[in-house]
Amino acid sequence: MKTQLLAIATLLCAFSAFQAHAESIGEAMEKCRNTDNSLKRLMCYDGVAKSLNQYEGVNEQVSQLKAYKPNNSAQTRPRPAQADRQPAPSKPESDFGLEHKRDLTKETSEITVTISTIKKNPRDKYVLTFSDGSVWQQTDRTHLKLEEGQAVSVERGLFGAFFLSVEGLNKRIKVKRVK
Fold this sequence. Notes:
It contains six helices and six strands. It is α+β, with helices and mostly antiparallel strands. 8% of the residues are buried. The protein is elongated.
């Protein structure tokens, strides 16, 4: 009797396993999409991706995707002139130090400016206003003697760093643009 129950339970489990896998990819993806927990949802999507061949209609859906060609009508439509959409070119010196929002391949790597005002912040670091209106702040502890009206160079370093140097001195300070 026990062996017959065990055999029946095994058969029921086997049939239910086949039935559980007899769903389409769309149904499996929908089940994953309805999962609230983001980690469980990601694990569900990964499980679907790893076992694609267990779902019904996979070969038909893959062949449909391979046969799909994007609509080229967007390429044949006339487009407005590119010059109408581009903003007017600005002076590269006025945006120097604000590169995190645009392509840097054509940007200048150094500017030469004159110091208009020098202030010190509470941490005894320079806050410099240049003749072009930009404001830069010292970020390291290096000491450099600076004066108002002095011409200095600000050059781009690695990893978004900027360095201020005075011609004729073999010393520079690390700065960042504030405004």
